[in-house]
Amino acid sequence: MFKEVAESSNVHKCISLDEFPMAALHDMNGDARSFMDRCVASENLDALYMLGMVEYFSCDNLDTALTCLNKSARLGHVGAYYIITIILLLSGRDFKQKGVTLLSTMKSSREYREKVKYYREVLIKFLRLATTRNPKVLNGRPSCCSNARHRILETNGLSLVGNMDDSLFCDACTCDRELAYIFEGICSI
Question: What is the pTM of this model?
Fold first, then answer.
């Protein structure tokens, strides 16, 4: 009976994957891969989120990544929603504004601001450990804000940003700072 319960899709859907080694996900095989596949098939939010990150950042597979991340975000995973905004910001002109809007919406809520910080750290940790093959990440940090005055203020460094009035900056500046945190976090090993 215990084996039957353990193999139930409800168990795979609800099990926490906080300790699962996300960076090694694309190299898994055997029982570990089978377990993760069952979690994904059962719509486990963490499994979909993790697979989406691996598919985008390590495999440069946008279609599979967005399928997993969109499903996880639709089911309420804040980390998946955050990664989708980062993908949009990295994806260029047509998608960048949507990413700006989504991230600004997340950061306008105190509850989501804390979750953004948490998932940013998860992303940085993942990118430090994983093999990143996506050229949009490897080619460096894009810029979201096109206002020259804002860029001058930003060049004074992130340490000053915390002391500045946020009203000096637009939503795109907020996204530029978010991307700067990520890219600086990756480089500060």
Answer: 0.81
